[in-house]
Amino acid sequence: MKIDKNQLDVSMWKGAKCDTFQKAQNLRAHMTNSEYLLWEKLKDAKVLGYKIRRQHPIGKYIVDFYIHKLKLVIEIDGRYHEKQAQILKDKERTTFLEFNGLIVFRCTNQEVEKDISNVIDQIKNQIRKIELKNS
User: Fold this and answer.
1) CATH number, domain at 92?
2) Which residue segment(s) compose the domain that 20 sits in?
3) What does pLDDT average to in each consecutive run of 10 residues of the chain (135 residues)?
């Protein structure tokens, strides 16, 4: 995917349009089971030490979770992410997010539902890497 330099936006929302905010609001009201489970663990800023936003608009996309201070996106992938068409869409999405200076961490629904402690540990490790890089 070719990225247009005009897509680079330094704001927290990277040019998200009004309808994307409305879709995000709807997604917050109708989270998947895995999103809900992870949100219940992460919504208290003391868990990771940072404010976490859920169903956050970034450009034309809505990411599952976002830590703006670290520019860290946390995505939970369901089984449909294994389909070839979705793999290509995810690659395009990741390219856009990374082009805008964001780091993308992915885990699966199954990982969240079967071993959420490990997922949280992986997120904490990712945060430590970012903090070391930024120090």
Assistant:
1) 3.40.960.10
2) 13-134
3) 48 66 76 94 85 92 95 88 77 93 96 96 96 92
